[in-house]
UniProtKB/TrEMBL annotation:
GO biological process: peptide transport
GO terms for cellular component: ATP-binding cassette (ABC) transporter complex; periplasmic space
Annotated signal peptide: 1-21
Record PANTHER family: OLIGOPEPTIDE-BINDING PROTEIN APPA (PTHR30290:SF9), PERIPLASMIC BINDING COMPONENT OF ABC TRANSPORTER (PTHR30290)
Name of the featured protein: Peptide ABC transporter substrate-binding protein
InterPro entries reported for this sequence: Opp4A (IPR050034), Peptide/Ni-bd (IPR030678), SBP_5 (IPR039424), SBP_5_dom (IPR000914)
Residue ranges occupied by any Solute-binding protein family domain in the UniProt entry: 98-491
UniProtKB keywords: Signal, Transport
Gene Ontology MF: a single term: peptide transmembrane transporter activity
Length: 579
């Protein structure tokens, strides 16, 4: 699940949801790498890669420090992991999944997959990667003591449920044939098994003796993490920086850079820091767009994000014992209230006035460029329409009985809604005020919870732990290459932060991955039906599909970005001098 809300204004976890088919683009006149440069050139005068040097990759908030793919939560840690770890599979610019370290053969019944990994791939501590490390990662995630959110990526494996519930001591669907061959049997045929299957190994030897429940706090994860990627971590100052050096035994060849410094900076200073050359690259906030695009030493890349911004209603809470959502908050039970709040929000103005136009309206959880996106004329567009919002509220019984300009609930009681958002861009406060004002104009008393926007970590602690004061919250989900909404939308998904589901929702999600879904037209219709249902029920307000801006110092060459990632093949990045 490519989730994105823990990053400035989003939790971006990257692995399972929707095709948004655009590769990275740059603004006219700019390219990743700049104009030719002095130094080595080819026969056409193009600068050639040169080894050496250290670059600085910036981030805007203190990171958590969960440097293990199976455990990280947001792109605060993800950016470091993209330099140090690597997946068994790769995702191309067109968002198709292809072999990387592992190749595979699929049985005729689509239930058995035989994977072969490349020999000679080394961990940063010198151990050779074997399929035991991949198998170990499955076992960790399937463990009853695993506290992370990626169970969805192993649950399809035969025997995982018995292992997860303590009824079995091994996972029957995992068979090691030899150190480089792993056979995986799944419970049923699913069209997107490879897209959803967990694809990052964990070094089994390195974690020997560490119980799963203690891994999050272990030195193996927080102090001396290792991976198989092109750079290895040498030093961590918690929440401030991560120092990495080139991993000379990287299986694709020695990286060109000597190292990478991943460092936290104040985004309010980002323009000056890029101007000074203190940062070489960062996923920048929108409020810096106008100034960054005018810096002479910066190439400003732009790419559609595989994500959507939303405002979620809290319908209930997560039951840790049963590992399922409980829809025990009736406040938003009437969908006419939810629809009215949708109509009363001027989303187009939010994009124009507070995001520099970097985004477009969206009405469903599937991006507009996906093959599974329903045509706009088949769903409600929820245009800004305060009059319709007022009609719906009146119809639902939310009336201003005491004539103070604010509506009471259908029982005549004061009706106040708490809204939570995050400190982020310079416009965060004014944008929030505009949102609250939209609702106040139709008579809804929506107030900023606690009177202030929250810092990133306290915000997500409150949302994830279902703080009872959290009723309405602003977030962004980052997605992946397949339209299966599993991981975010089912009743047993921890990342289902609104805590909403229904029998119809569960039925459609299952239908989208069953045997019939190997017929793409059938699968498309399932997702059309699902989007119609979500569009009518409004379990959340979809605000916009977003666009990233990525400033890159012109001295940094070889950078390529797309809607999946801004850190692609960093082993090929290199430095040149720019006058």
């Amino acid at each position: 699940m490519n989730n994105k809300i823990r990053s400035g204004a989003m939790l971006m976890l990257l692995w399972v949801l929707v095709l948004s088919a655009c590769s990275g683009t740059v603004t006219p006149g700019n390219s990743a790498g700049g104009d030719g440069a002095p130094g080595m050139t080819d026969s056409k005068g193009n600068a050639q890669p040169e080894a050496g040097g250290i670059i600085t990759y910036g981030y805007s908030s203190p990171f958590q420090g969960l440097f293990e793919p199976a455990f990280y939560e947001g792109d605060d840690d993800l950016y470091a992991l993209e330099f140090t770890t690597e997946s068994m599979f790769a995702v191309k610019d067109d968002l198709t999944t292809v072999p990387n370290i592992a190749t595979w053969q699929e049985s005729e019944d689509h239930r058995t997959f035989t994977f072969k990994i490349k020999p000679g791939v080394r961990w940063h501590n010198g151990d050779e990667l074997t399929v035991e490390d991949w198998k170990f990662a499955f076992e960790v995630i399937a463990s009853p003591d695993y506290s992370g959110p990626r169970y969805y990526s192993v649950e399809m494996i035969q025997g995982v449920e018995a292992y997860h519930t303590g009824k079995a001591t091994t996972i029957s669907g995992l068979t090691v044939i030899d150190p480089y061959t792993l056979r995986i049997t799944v419970t049923s045929a699913r069209v997107n098994t490879i897209d959803n299957l967990w694809s990052y190994p964990m070094n089994k030897k390195y974690y020997t003796g560490i119980p799963v429940k203690e891994m999050e706090d272990s030195s193996q994860m927080r102090v001396n993490p290792i991976g198989i990627g092109p750079f290895m971590i040498t030093s961590i100052k918690p929440g401030e920086y991560v120092e990495m050096k080139r991993f000379d035994d990287y299986y694709k060849g020695k990286p060109l850079l000597d190292g990478v410094l991943y460092k936290v900076f104040d985004d309010k200073q980002i323009v000056e820091l890029f101007k000074q050359g203190a940062i070489d690259m960062e996923d920048a906030p929108r409020d810096a767009y106008e100034q960054l695009k005018n810096l002479e030493n910066v190439n400003l890349l732009q790419t559609p994000e595989l994500s959507y911004e939303y405002i979620g209603f809290k319908f209930g809470s997560w039951d840790n014992k049963e590992e399922i959502i409980k829809m025990d908050n009736p406040k938003f039970a009437d969908k006419r209230l939810r629809q009215a709040m949708y109509y009363s929000l001027d989303r187009a103005s939010l994009i124009k006035n507070y995001s520099y136009g970097l985004g477009k309206l969206v009405e469903t959880p599937i991006p507009g460029t996906s093959w599974a996106k329903i045509p706009d004329d088949q769903i409600n567009q929820y245009p800004y329409n305060p009059a319709k919002a007022k009609d719906l509220l009146n119809e639902a019984g939310y009336i201003d009985t005491n004539k103070d300009g604010l509506r009471e609930d259908p029982k005549g009681n004061p009706f106040v809604i708490n809204y939570d958002g995050m400190i982020g861009s310079a416009m965060a406060e004014s944008r929030t005020e505009a949102i609250l004002q939209n609702w106040r104009e139709v008579g809804l008393d929506v107030r900023l919870n606690g009177g202030n926007l929250k810092e990133l970590n306290p915000f997500y602690d409150a949302v994830e732990n279902d703080d009872p004061t959290v009723e309405l919250f602003n977030g962004v989900w980052g997605l992946a290459s397949d339209p299966d909404p599993s991981g975010l939308w089912r009743k047993d998904d921890p990342w289902n932060y609104p805590r909403w589901s229904s029998e119809r929702n569960e039925e459609l999600i299952r239908a989208g991955v069953n045997m019939k879904s190997f017929d793409k037209e059938y699968r498309k219709q399932v997702y059309y039906d699902w989007q119609k249902y979500i569009n009518e029920e409004v379990p959340m307000i979809f605000v916009a599909e977003r666009e990233s801006i990525i400033p890159v110092n012109k001295r940094l060459q070889g950078v390529h970005v797309n809607s999946m990632s801004t850190i692609i093949e960093p082993a090929k990045w290199w430095i040149k001098d720019v006058d």
